[in-house]
Design a protein that fits this description.
This protein is of the alpha/beta class. It is built from 20 helices and 16 strands. The longest helix is centred in the first third of the chain and has 53 residues.
Length: 632
């Protein structure tokens, strides 16, 4: 993944802020104004305190309390008004931040998921599924905490620190220098302690992803684990991963827990030092240096003590948010990395359209569904040609490698004419499934050509190409919903009657009617309440309702018992009638009636012919069929 191993906080912060502004171009600036106002108001009580104390000093010297009491009451009233306005601003920005935070996370999840739908199959083949899930859980949650809590708190603290620093400089340079020296000490501690914390918080996020990936893998493989009595080894493996997470989390939180007590005590020491220095300056009648031009007095030193506490406290708050910000930025970096993943490329321009035939035998495009499909092929001269979708698939000298330099298919040439059944047999890893992956362009070939109805498949839009293909995989995936919903997944516009007809064709109707609510029985957990064979029958029915001209059956009956297979085979024969079919099977009895059988070995077609022809050759297929050689 691009950027996975590079942590560039500046770039991530800039992009995150830009993204938030794109999501909420009006609400976010309004929220920032409210935060700014609230922070400034929280910084000015010291100014009022100075004025009140100065007024009290004046009345003490003159003995005329009545002369200043009105001024003091006026100052208190103005401060009260500011506090009320600050309360309104604080309430407003907290409510707006709730909307912005949850709304932004919703939009980011949508961008991640929508982008994920456009990623190539290779991405999911090469990334741990549990780690991908971690983007939507751990990383989004870390981002939530940063946006909703850390960002507002950081802004409030930074504005408060800046405002208080300006006020301190206005009243006294000397006391400000003492405070700044203490803050430099606090920042030095933050750099050393917080830096170690940040490093381990990033590692903690990565370790969380690995842990979730392992748990997801173990959940999917529970039957295998129990079958082979692998529980204790699984526990040991999990303990190792969990221990690594514990170590990263312990070190991160150890540093984080050290930081606040240290900064808090430095702030207390700084308060005492400012009090001592201010007292010494008062006693020595030292000249004051400030923008205000005021001399040292109680009215300056006392508010300065309050400002020192406020200044140091907000610096501590900034330091305390470092860990949450680092975790949030680490999460944001991973989220943006997923969003930035290269989408599946598609240079195709030939599309699949509904068509009907005119009186003179020409194909024309139409809106209504006619069960006649055509490839709409635009040409450089602006003309359009329409080719009937027939299901003629041909490979010409195809080479392919999943990784550069590691070729898995060598010089593969084959053809399947409309309505023909072509079977692939061979040992595991021979390249059978790879060939079918190339037909629907889950992967693109390195060399050679694949033509579909005479059209190079690279010119066909992938969505249209895949719409013309039906596929039944060895590993069945069912989705949460009713049985009817899962069948209709193959054709969302199919009626209930069409779905039932597809189930009858696949031989699934009988067992469906025996379910508690029949076709309206809810399925969840990949159809955990069904047998493997029943799930496979639903997958076949789902392919049948799509009614494609080309079918790919990848070990479609591998999980069905012999009795059920006989029932399914009848439906499969009906399903395959009039269609081009590619079959991958370990059970050679299911491919005997194929028009052509391809025997593969290490990515090469070593034998081809009908069942009878291959038996007559007495080669590899003969040995496989007679049991002299076994598929593994």
């Amino acid at each position: 993944m691009r950027g996975r191993n590079r942590y560039v906080p500046g770039g991530v912060i800039g992009r995150l802020i830009k993204t938030l502004f794109e999501f909420y171009p009006v609400l976010l600036p309004l929220t920032l104004v409210c935060i700014l106002f609230s922070a400034i108001v929280s910084s000015i009580p010291s100014v009022f305190m100075q004025n009140v104390i100065a007024a009290v000093e004046t009345s003490w010297q003159s003995g005329d309390w009545q002369a200043v009491s009105g001024k003091i009451l006026g100052l208190v009233g103005i401060l009260a008004i500011f506090y009320v306005l600050s309360l309104i601003a604080a309430f407003t920005f907290t409510q707006l931040m709730a909307v912005i935070t949850q709304g932004s996370l919703k939009k980011l999840r949508e961008k991640m998921f929508n982008g994920m739908q456009d990623l190539p199959i290779k991405y999911f083949d090469t990334h741990n599924h549990g780690d991908i899930m971690s983007y939507y859980t751990n990383d989004i949650d870390a981002l939530r905490q940063m946006i909703s809590q850390s960002f507002p708190q950081l802004m409030i603290s930074c504005v408060t620190v800046t405002t208080v620093l300006c006020i301190m400089l206005y009243y006294s340079f000397w006391l400000t220098l003492v405070v700044v020296a203490g803050v430099v000490c606090m920042l030095t501690v933050t750099k050393h302690v917080g830096g170690g914390s940040a490093r381990y918080f990033i590692r903690q996020q990565q370790a969380l992803g690995r842990t979730e990936g392992f748990v997801e893998e173990m959940m999917n493989g529970q039957k295998v684990i129990k079958t082979f009595c692998h529980e204790r080894q699984a526990e040991k493996d999990f303990d190792a991963i969990n221990d690594a997470l514990f170590e990263d989390a312990r070190k991160a939180n150890r540093y984080a827990n050290m930081l606040m007590p240290i900064l808090g005590n430095i702030g207390n020491v700084l308060y005492v030092v400012v009090a001592i220095v201010g007292g010494l300056l008062l006693l020595s009648n030292a000249p004051n240096l400030s923008f205000s031009g005021l001399g040292f007095s109680i009215s300056i030193v006392v508010p300065f003590l309050n400002m020192t506490k406020q200044f140091a406290g907000n610096v501590s708050q900034v330091s305390n948010q470092v860990n949450a910000v680092v975790m949030g930025l680490a999460g944001a970096q991973r989220v943006f990395a997923l969003i930035d993943e290269q989408a599946e490329t598609d240079e195709g321009y030939v599309t699949l359209v509904n068509a009907k035939e005119t009186a003179d035998g020409q194909l024309i495009e139409c809106e209504e569904r006619t069960n006649v499909w055509a490839w709409k092929h635009p040409h450089h001269d602006g003309t359009l040609t329409y080719t009937r979708l027939a299901g003629d698939v041909r490979f010409y000298d195809v080479d392919f490698a999943y990784e550069p330099g590691k070729t898995v298919l060598h010089d593969v040439s084959l053809y399947a004419e409309p309505g023909q059944k072509v079977a692939f047999v061979g040992s595991t890893g021979a390249g059978k499934t790879t060939i079918t992956n190339l037909i629907n362009r889950f992967y693109d070939i390195e060399d050679g050509k694949i033509r579909y109805d005479g059209i190079n498949i690279n010119k066909i839009k992938k969505a249209d190409l895949r719409r013309s293909l039906g596929i039944v995989l060895q590993d069945t995936n069912l989705f949460t919903g009713t049985v009817m919903d899962n069948i209709r997944y193959g054709n969302l516009s199919a009626s209930d009657e069409e779905c039932i007809a597809a189930a009858q064709l696949a031989g699934a109707h009988d067992f469906i009617t025996r379910l508690p609510q029949g076709y309206h029985t809810m399925l969840s957990g990949n159809g955990a309440n069904l047998s493997q064979g029943q799930r496979q029958l639903l997958a076949i029915a789902r392919a049948a309702v799509a009614d494609p001209p080309v079918m790919i059956l990848d070990e479609a009956t591998s999980s069905i018992d012999t009795r059920t297979e006989a029932i399914v085979q009848q439906g499969m024969d009906a399903l395959m009638t009039g269609r081009t079919v590619f079959v991958i099977a370990h059970r050679l009895s299911t491919v005997k009636n194929s028009n052509a059988i391809m025997v593969l070995d290490h990515g090469r077609i070593i034998e081809r012919g009908t069942h009878e022809q291959l038996l007559a050759l007495k080669g590899t297929y003969y040995q496989l069929y007679t049991g002299a050689l076994e598929l593994d």
